[in-house]
Structure formats: C-alpha cells, structure tokens
C-alpha cells in the first residue's frame, strides 16, 4: 500500500484510497461520503461491508460508515437516515504524508435536497487516517436565512469475528431508548453489554469512551459533539429480512454509532455544529 491518497474505482464507485507507510489503509466512496474500509497496520478490516451491498449510486450502501443526515432513522418525515448517504460528495481538500492521510468531503443543498428538506446548508466530512487511528469529523453550517433543525449519526458498522463473543464496555449507568421494546426508556445496569439477541438502542448523553473487546483485540470508540451512542444488531430474523445482508450477517457485525438523536441540533443562520467519532485499534 502506497502512502498518501489516490483516486480509485471501487466496484464501479468513484472512491479514494488513503494509506500510511506503516500499512494503515482506508477506502472512502464519494457516493454517500462513506468510509467503506479501514484496516489498521498489520490487521484486518475493522469495518463491516455487506457482501450483498448494492453499489449502483442510487441505493444506500450497507456497511462501512454511512452519514445519516439530516435525519437519523425514522425520527422525522424524511426517508430513513436522510439523504446524505445517497448523494455525491465533492472532494474539498486532500493532505497527506508518510504518517497520515486527510481528506475533507463536502455536500451542499441543491434543488433535489430542498424538495425533501427546504433548508440551505453546507456539510463537511473530514476523514483522518494515522497509525492505528481513524477520525471522522462531521460539520454542518446553516447557510440559509432561517433556523434549521436536524438529527444525525455516523452509522458505524464494526466487523467482529463473532458477535456473541464480543463485549461492549462503557455504557454502564446510562439511560437508553429500547426500540425492540416499544421505545421504553431503560437504564443499563450491567458491567458489559453482551449481544445475545436483536439490539436497537439509543444511549443518551454518553460521557465516556466505549470499548469493544473480542478475543485478542479491542477497539476504542470515542465521540465528541455527538451526545448519543447507538448500538444495533439485527440478529437472526431481521438479517434474513434485509435483502442486502447475508442471513448470517448478524454474527459478524455490530453497529456502534455516534449520534445526535435524542435532541435535534438547532442552528440559527450562519451557525455551525460539529461532531467527531474516533476509532482506535488496540
């Protein structure tokens, strides 16, 4: 892998490949502004990309790190997870050396987005690759004349060797909305979260990093600006029902997402907001 940034074709999609001299690499699709792959030095891909993902530049890509904006999930009138993940993003900046690679992508409103969501905005996604670390920073600016509100998330699909043998630490004591139980608000009382069935939780106001442990490796997950953490695994029946997932996909993936879901972000004209998610392979 060559250090720096290069333009590539990823299964028919225009994309960027980021690399460092120590062997770290990442692939970013310009469709959706979506990280599709991240491999730390000497390791395997830590992101899950469905082998059944549809890459037709119209359908949301199942896996990697989709950008949910200006709506997370079904929390509004827009299509689920908004429109950012099905738009073409532009490359704003590229910088790199032997030790890091940084790219910033941009998305602005146009006639199609204003038909769905009548607001003027600009969005930037900065992706930084260095050593065993991947940083994503998402920034939104209100470029219109009126206030705007949105929810957002970095819908991170993590690759795991076996989800039932994985342990998620750091969520003890936080309240969460449990979509698998009529959206009831509950409090996490366990030392670790084990995935033993369908999970669809939004943890509120999480104020410390999360650690994913599995076998002989771990992954540190930290967020700034995003107050919520989403944990999602479709389990057996939902995996079978999702057409762009293999039936056994639930065994090899776990979504741990940085989100602003409980309380919408509100911006006055000219104001900006940003949120960051950092993944560190341990």
UniProtKB/TrEMBL annotation:
GO terms for biological process: carbohydrate metabolic process. It catalyses: alpha-D-glucose 6-phosphate = beta-D-glucose 6-phosphate. InterPro entries: Aldose_1/G6P_1-epimerase (IPR008183), G6P_1-epimerase (IPR025532), Gal_mutarotase_sf_dom (IPR011013), GH-type_carb-bd (IPR014718). SUPFAM superfamilies: Galactose mutarotase-like. It is an enzyme of class 5 (isomerase). Pfam families: Aldose_epim. The active site is at residues 155, 257. Its EC number is 5.1.3.15. GO terms for cellular component: cytoplasm. Keywords: Isomerase. It comes from the Bacteria. This is Putative glucose-6-phosphate 1-epimerase.
């Amino acid at each position: 892998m060559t250090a720096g940034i290069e333009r590539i074709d990823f299964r028919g999609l225009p994309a960027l490949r980021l690399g460092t001299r120590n062997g770290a690499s990442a692939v970013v699709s310009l469709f959706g502004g979506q990280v599709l792959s991240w491999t730390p030095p000497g390791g395997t891909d830590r992101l899950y990309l469905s082998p059944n993902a549809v890459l037709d530049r119209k359908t949301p890509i199942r896996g990697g790190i989709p950008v949910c904006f200006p709506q997370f999930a079904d929390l509004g009138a827009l299509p689920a997870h908004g429109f950012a993940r099905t738009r073409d993003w532009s490359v704003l900046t590229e910088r790199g050396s032997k030790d890091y690679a940084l790219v910033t992508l941009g998305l602005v409103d146009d006639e199609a987005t204003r038909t769905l969501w009548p607001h003027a905005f600009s969005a930037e996604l900065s992706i930084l690759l260095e050593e065993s670390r991947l940083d994503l920073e998402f920034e939104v600016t209100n470029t219109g004349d009126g206030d705007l509100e949105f929810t957002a998330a970095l819908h991170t699909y993590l690759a795991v060797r076996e989800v039932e043998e994985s342990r998620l630490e750091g969520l003890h004591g936080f309240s969460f909305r449990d979509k698998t139980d009529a959206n009831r608000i509950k409090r996490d009382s366990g030392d670790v979260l084990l995935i033993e069935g369908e999970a669809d939780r939004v943890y509120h106001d999480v104020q410390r990093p999360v650690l994913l442990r599995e076998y002989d490796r771990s992954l540190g997950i930290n967020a700034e600006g995003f107050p919520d953490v989403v944990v999602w695994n479709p389990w057996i029946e939902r995996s079978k029902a999702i057409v762009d997932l293999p039936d056994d996909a639930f065994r090899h993936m776990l979504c741990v997402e940085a989100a602003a879901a409980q309380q919408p972000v509100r911006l006055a004209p000219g104001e900006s907001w940003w949120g960051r998610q950092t993944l560190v392979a341990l």
